[in-house]
Amino acid sequence: MDFLRPSTWEEALAAKAAHPEAVPIAGGTDVMVELNFDRRRPPALIDLTRVAALGEWGTDGDELRVGAGVPYRRIIEELGDALPGLAMASRTVGSPQIRNRGTVGGNLGSASPAGDAHPPLLAAGAEIELASVRGTRRVPAKEFFVGPKRSVLAPDELIAAFRVRPTAGAEQFAKIGTRNAMVIAVCSFALVLDGAARRVGTGIGSAAPTPLRATAAEEFLAAELDWESRAPVPVAVAAEFARLVAAAATPIDDVRGTAAYRRHALSVLARRTLTWAWGGMR
Amino acid sequence: MRVNCTINGEKRQADDVWPGESLLYVLRERLGLPGSKNACEQGECGSCTVYLDGTPVCSCLVAAGQAEGRDVVTVEGLEFGRVQEAFLSAGAVQCGFCTPGLVVAVHDLLARNDKPSDPDIREALAGNLCRCTGYEKILDAVRLAAR
Predict the structure, then answer these.
(1) Which of A89, A139, A194, B47 is deepest in the core (most CB within 10 A)?
(2) What count of Cα atoms within 13 Å lies in the side-chain half-sphere of residue A167?
(3) Where are the alpha helices (DSSP H) in B10-96?
């Protein structure tokens, strides 16, 4: 096995083009587990921790561009105000040791249906920036995931960054697990209420082959919310939103929970996050 | 491959490193530093916690080559002080397997926050599993060390 150690983004893209079978490694919180347990023997690793550009974030017009190598800890500390939903989700990732090292780019690269960063990125309408020696393209988070642990990432591409417009409104994230810390989501839900655009964004985790948006629920709620007067959400509207969110999921029974439980829990998370988010805007 | 890094203030070199092996393996098996314990190998238990460039990480999740040129501090490199003394006097050490990881995690917590609340302590130690103390004495030890 080779260990490739690019020090610039150009070198990293050249390495991935020359070794498309090579596995990129940043925080190592997924890749090293597979290596330690002999589940994977890639011909090469590409260490991305020396590519300084991946650890940077900044504004680009009205968008935030966050390098794929920014670890959860820095998302929480440096981007908590601008991206509160993603910061909330980041706080639920693993332990301090894992948050110190794990990255949103790695989460996207693994493309697990349970990835904690995915629901808030979906809800916020984020775009994922993918790059190769052929050039750079942007893919909406909604189109990035194509199956369990599968994404549209081409063999010669690396995840450069994600881009998102900070919301003029409220963001929430909630996750069900069997304990408070160090747990993979049984299911999770992210909500964005954008008062300026009168837009509702959702993201569902761990309740379908991929993370996904509940578009019918978004459209229903955006039409029903009283954006003008910010009047309380009628109970029937919250209930229907919750029902539509649960209906968008296609969960399975597995070791962490049953499909029926996941559906029920999602409806509860949808109703609760709506109450919290709308309450925060009123 | 060869890996060069600074460990506990000394320049160290490990040879014949397989690129897929972990920093934890290098520390324990190649450099004779058995303080960091090898248990879960998946970042769940925290027994292998070390400082990498000043940040606590699970050394089982760091590829050996990622440590090239970096600064590593293991439990062996921490000066004996209030954290270790508090663990001893509170009876927070039973079999001792989780202790090195906990000592590093608590050392980091107290460096950032010298008056941690109980929720602060619980959050800081959420990544360190112990199978015998029941945690109460560990919490006592952190409160004692913070005093």
Answers:
(1) A89
(2) 28
(3) 23-25, 82-90
CB-based contact A202:A271 (threshold 8 Å): no
Element (H, E) at B124: helix B118-124
Amino acid found at A81: D
Cross-sheet strand order for the sheet of A127-132: A57-60, A63-67, A158-164, A127-132, A135-140
pLDDT per residue over A46-70, tens digit each? 999 999 999 999 999 999 999 999 9
- Residue A179 in this model has a pLDDT that exceeds 90: no
Q: Do A137 and A89 fall into the same domain?
A: yes
Give the DSSP letter of residue A234: P
Q: Are A36 and B60 a contacting pair at CB < 8 A?
A: yes
**DSSP state, A131?**
E
CA distance A213 to chain B (A): 30
Residue A257, phi then psi, degrees to nearest 5: 175, 165
Cβ–Cβ under 8 Å, residues A109 and A157: no
Helices B136-146/B82-90 angle, 10° precision: 140
**Residue type at B69 in one-letter notation:** G
Burial A201-215, CB ≥16 within 10 A → b, else e: bbbbbbbbebbbbbe
CA pair distance A256, A250, nearest whole angstrom: 15
User: Looking at the 3D structure of chain A, how many domains does it have?
Assistant: 2
DSSP 8-class letter at B98:
S
Pairing of strands B3-7, B71-73: parallel
Fold that domain B3-77 belongs to in CATH: Ubiquitin-like (UB roll) (3.10.20)
Do A23 and A121 belong together in one domain?
yes
What is the CA A87 to chain-centroid distance, rounded? 11
Using DSSP's 3-state secondary structure scheme, residue A171 falls into strand
Residues of chain B with Cβ-Cβ distance to A23 below 8 Å are none
Give the HSE-up count for residue B4: Cα atoms under 13 Å, Cβ half-sphere: 2
Question: What's the predicted TM-score (pTM) here?
Answer: 0.96
Distance CA B84, CA B77 (A): 13
Q: Do the Cβ atoms of A31 and B63 come within 8 Å?
A: yes
Give dist(CA B55, CA B108) in Å, integer.
8
CB-based contact A36 B42, cutoff 8 Å = yes
Q: With an 8 Å Cβ cutoff, are A3 and B65 in contact?
A: yes
pLDDT in tens, B114-143: 999 999 999 999 999 999 999 999 999 999
CATH number for position A225: 3.30.390.50
CATH number of the B82-146 domain: 1.10.150.120
